[in-house]
From TrEMBL:
Organism of this sequence: Bradyrhizobium niftali
InterPro entries membership: Cro/C1-type_HTH, Lambda_DNA-bd_dom_sf, TransReg_Diox_bact_type
GO cellular component: cytosol
Top-rank taxon: Bacteria
Name of the protein in its database record: XRE family transcriptional regulator
Keywords associated with the record: DNA-binding
Pfam assignment, any one: HTH_3
UniProt cross-references to SUPFAM superfamilies, sorted A to Z: lambda repressor-like DNA-binding domains (SSF47413)
Source organism phylogeny: Bacteria, Pseudomonadati, Pseudomonadota, Alphaproteobacteria, Hyphomicrobiales
Record-level Gene Ontology MF annotations: DNA binding; DNA-binding transcription factor activity
């Protein structure tokens, strides 16, 4: 699994843990819902800037989204 796929899995898991829609996450992160969906599907690679925006919107550290088999805490 490459980093793009690891981030996709961790992002989706954390978003679901927070019971947040892609649209809500996109709004909080200042991104489009289509882009968030593409990241979650692993269709595109997020830049470090976007990684930071998403992490902040989810309330996690950016590195947590890149850890293989990450167990992100529910915030």
């Amino acid at each position: 699994m490459d980093l793009k796929e690891i981030m996709a899995v961790n992002l989706r898991r954390k978003r679901h843990d927070l019971q947040m829609t892609q649209e809500e996450l996109a709004e909080r992160a200042g991104l489009s819902a289509r882009y968030v969906g593409a990241i979650e599907r692993g269709d595109v690679s997020a830049s470090v800037t976007v990684l930071g925006q998403i992490a902040e919107a989810l309330g996690v550290e950016p590195g947590d989204l890149l850890k293989k088999a990450a167990r992100l805490s529910k915030s």
